[in-house]
Write a structure and sequence with these properties.
single chain, 222 residues, mainly alpha, Endonuclease Iii, domain 2, Endonuclease III, domain 1, 2 domains, 13 helices, DNA-binding
DNA sequence: TACCAGGAGAAAA
DNA sequence: TTTTCTCATGGT
């Protein structure tokens, strides 16, 4: 059972929206590049992912065929700034094989959202968060992304326990906010930006965009 | 030097 | 079913 309060969930968005500029938050030239970035950014700061993407762009055109044409060790070397390079090289290859065998962008983007989500999740190395990043930012489907920042901030505000199953939290947020791709993209970006810029340095959110919400009943003041 | 970052999968308990 | 471990570089 979710403890999400609809009014407070919307208030969080409104409070953050006036504080951060998240335009071009997921910078990419193509949807495929978004998907590659989603894999590379697993447990990795975006600044390091940018270096890896720059290395790839300097060497090849960012397509599934070009990545599959690379030698795995060569691919690992190019993406090394993003960390876990051997692991992520395998994941990129697995994903590119899936992408090509599924018929590429045209075929995948024609699938219903839930079917597409299950297909993405069937690829080794793509978990719920990575799949939902792809669905929201590449395929522009109304899927709310739950990441560690989202859990942390919502739990701190008393909008959850912080340990709910991924699907429980995602469906609860989607139910409250309604299917709105633009809102989901913006909300996720705002939560990440807020967590990066304020909450990490100030665990109690004092003086931050969510100051008033942190003081409301149910919020965690640790 | 230690910790964290836009996770996921496998192994162990 | 839940928890722990592994993968690894770069910034603070």
């Amino acid at each position: 059972m979710s403890t999400l309060d609809p009014a407070r969930l919307r208030a969080v968005y409104e409070a953050l929206a006036v504080c951060y500029d998240t335009r071009h938050w997921w910078p990419a030239e193509t949807p495929f590049e978004v998907m590659i970035g989603a894999i590379l950014t697993q447990n990795t700061a975006w600044s390091n992912v940018e270096r890896a993407l720059a290395n790839l762009r300097a060497r090849i055109e960012l397509t599934a065929e070009s990545i599959l044409a690379l030698d795995p060790s060569q691919l690992a070397e190019l993406i090394s700034p993003a960390g876990y390079f051997n692991l992520k090289a395998c994941r990129l290859i697995d994903f590119c094989q899936f992408y090509r065998e599924s018929g590429g962008w045209a075929a995948l983007s024609a699938l219903p959202t839930e079917v597409l989500r299950q297909q993405l999740l069937s690829v080794k190395g793509i978990g719920p968060e990575t799949a939902d990043d792809m669905l929201l930012y590449a395929f522009e489907r109304p899927v709310f992304v739950i990441d560690a920042y989202t859990r942390r901030i919502l739990a701190r505000l008393g909008l959850g326990r912080g340990n709910e199953p991924y699907e429980t939290l995602r469906l609860a947020c989607e139910s409250i906010l309604g299917p709105d791709v633009g809102l989901y993209q913006e909300y996720h970006a705002l939560l990440v930006e807020h967590a990066k810029q304020v909450c990490r340095a100030r665990p109690r959110c004092r003086g931050c965009a969510l100051n008033k919400l942190c003081a409301m009943p149910g919020a965690v003041s640790t």
